[in-house]
Amino acid sequence: MDQQKQRISVVAPRLNRGSFLIDTQLMIADRTQKKWRSLRSHLVMAALILLGVAARVAWVSIPAYNSLTGDSVAYDFAAAQLAHHGTLLQPSDAVMFDAPELIAQGAPRAEPLHDWAPGYPLFLGVVYSVAGAGPDARKLSAVLLAIMAGILLPLLALELWRDLDSAPAAWRWVVVAAVALWPSSILIERLMYSENLTVLVFTVWTVMLARLLLGIRSATVGRLVCCGATGGLLYLVRVEFAPIVVLGAILCGLACQTKGQIDAAAPHRFALKAPALVLAAFAPFVIGVSIWNGVQFGKITPMTSVGGTNLWNAAIRSDALDFSPGGKNRQVFLRSYVPGKPFETDRNLRRIALRIIQLDPLAYVGGVIARWKAVNLEEYGEPAVRGKPWPYWVWRGVLRSCKIALVIGCALALPLLWKRSRAITILLAGGYVYKCLGLHGLLNGQARQFYPFYAVGLAVAAIGWSAAWNYLRSQWGEGRAEAAG
Predict the structure, then answer these.
(1) Range of the domain at 114
(2) pLDDT at position 260, please?
(3) Closest to 142 (Cα-Cα) out of 61, 227, 24, 198
(4) Is 89 helix (H, G, I), strand (E, B) or coil?
(5) Residue 282: phi, psi to the nearest 5?
(6) Is 80 exceeded by the pLDDT of residue 416?
(7) CA distances from 99 to 33, 311, 333 (A)
(8) What pLDDT, on the 0 to 100 scale, is given for residue 219?
C-alpha cells in the first residue's frame, strides 16, 4: 500500500505538469483564434467602407457640374459671393422665380441670405476660397462630402447600434454594409444640397447625445457644451432641427442622471444643469442668425423667411404649378412680391396660402397625404416608370423596398428601444414625427428630406430586424424539436 502511494506521488506531478501544458496550449490557440476573428471582422468592415467610399466618389465624379438647378443655384451663388467678396448673398426671389419683369422694375438681383440656412454655403465658401469658384470646386466639394459620408456614417451608425443593442456580432457587418452601400445615399451625393452635410452633423450629434443619455459617457460640462455646440452647427445647416436639439436638451435634464431611464415613479425629477449647459452652447447660433436677420432686414427672427412661401407652394400643389407668363400662380407671386423685403413677401404668401386652404381644405389634406408618402415610403432616385421598360420597374422596386424595410425595422425596434432607454426612444420617435410627419407633411415633403435620418434609422432598424430574426429562429427551433419529439 505504501509503495502504491509512493508511485502515485511520483506520477501525479507529471500528470499535473502535462495538463498545465495542454491548458496553456489551448488558451494560446483560443487567443489566436479570437485575434484572427477580430482581424477578419475588421478587414471585412474596412472593405465594405472602402467599397462605399469608392462608389460615392465614382458617382459624384461623373458629372461636370457646369449647370445647377433648384436650391443648389442659391447655395453656389452664396458660396461664390462669400469666397470672392466676403459677403453672404443669395439670388433674389425675383431671380429664383424667374421674373425678369420685376428686375426691370428695379428689384434687386441679389440680397442678403434669408431663404436658406448659412451652414452649407459656409462650407462651400471655404472650398471655393481654396479651389476657386467654378465647376472644379463644385466637384471637389461633392467629393469631400462623399468621402466623409462614406467613412464616418458607417462607423457612427455602428457605434450607435452597439450602444443600443446586444445582438450577435455578425449584425455589425449588416449595419456597416447597409449604411455604406445604401443605394439612395450614394445617388443623393451628386446633389449640391444641404442634406449631404446635414446627415453628417445630425448623425454625430445623435451618437454624442445618445451616449450621454445612456450613461455611457458621464455628463461633464465639456461634453454637454460640445453636444450643444454640435446642435448649433446642425441648426446652421438646417434651421428646422432646432426643436429636435431643444428636445434633446430637455431629455438630458430628465435622463442623464438615471442612465437613460426616465424615472416612472418620479417623472418630475429634472436636473437643470445639463439642459442649461446644452442650451447655453446652442443659443449663440440661434442668436447669431437672429441678429443677422435683424441687421439686414429689420426683422428679429431666428428662422429663415420661407415658411409662408413653402406653405403657399404646398397649398397650390393640387393646381398646375404654372409660372409661365400669364400663369395664375405667377401673377399671385408678382402681386405678393415686395422688393428688398423678403419677410413681407413671405407674410403675403402665407396669407394667400391660408385663404386657399380655407376654401378647399380637402385638396390640401390630399397634398399632405401625398407628401407623407413621398417622405416616408418613396426613396430618392426612384425613376419614372410609366411607359418605361422593365429595368426601370426593377430599380424602382429595389429602392422602394429598401425604404420600406428601413421603416418597418424602426417600427419593430421601438418596443426594444423603450426598454433600453425611454429618453432615446422619445428623442428619435419625436424627431421623426416632428420632421417627417409634421413639418414636411404640412409644407414641402420630398423623398430627399428623409435622408438626414438614414444612418441613424438603419442602426435602429438593425435592432428591430435582428430581434425579428432571433424570434423566427427560436420558433423554427421549437417547431423542429416538437416534430422530432
Answers:
(1) 23-484
(2) 44
(3) 61
(4) strand
(5) -80, -35
(6) yes
(7) 70, 20, 9
(8) 80
**Domain count of the chain?**
1
What is the spatial distance between Cα 268 and Cα 349, in angstroms, rounded to a whole number?
Answer: 42
Q: Hey, which of 57-66, 270-279, 299-308 has the most confident mean pLDDT?
A: 57-66
pLDDT at 263: 43
Chain position carrying cell 462608389: 55
The verdict on residue 15 lying in a domain is no
| Cβ-contact 140, 64 below 8 angstroms | no
Q: Is 41 exposed, middle or buried (0-12, 13-18, 19+ CB in 10 A)?
A: middle
pLDDT band at 265 (very low <50, low <70, confident <90, very high): very low
Residues 92, 108 contacting (CB under 8 angstroms) = yes
3-class DSSP state for residue 112?
strand
Please, are residues 89 and 182 in contact by the beta-carbon 8 Å criterion?
A: no
Tens of pLDDT, residues 169-182: 778 888 999 999 99
In a domain, 10, yes or no: no
Residue 471 lies in a domain: yes
pLDDT in tens, 275-317: 889 999 999 998 888 887 777 777 777 777 778 888 888 888 6
Is 1 part of any domain? no
Provide long-range contacts, Cβ within 8 A and 24+ apart, for 465-473. 465/174, 465/405, 465/409, 465/412, 466/165, 466/167, 466/168, 466/171, 466/174, 467/167, 467/412, 467/413, 467/416, 468/412, 470/167
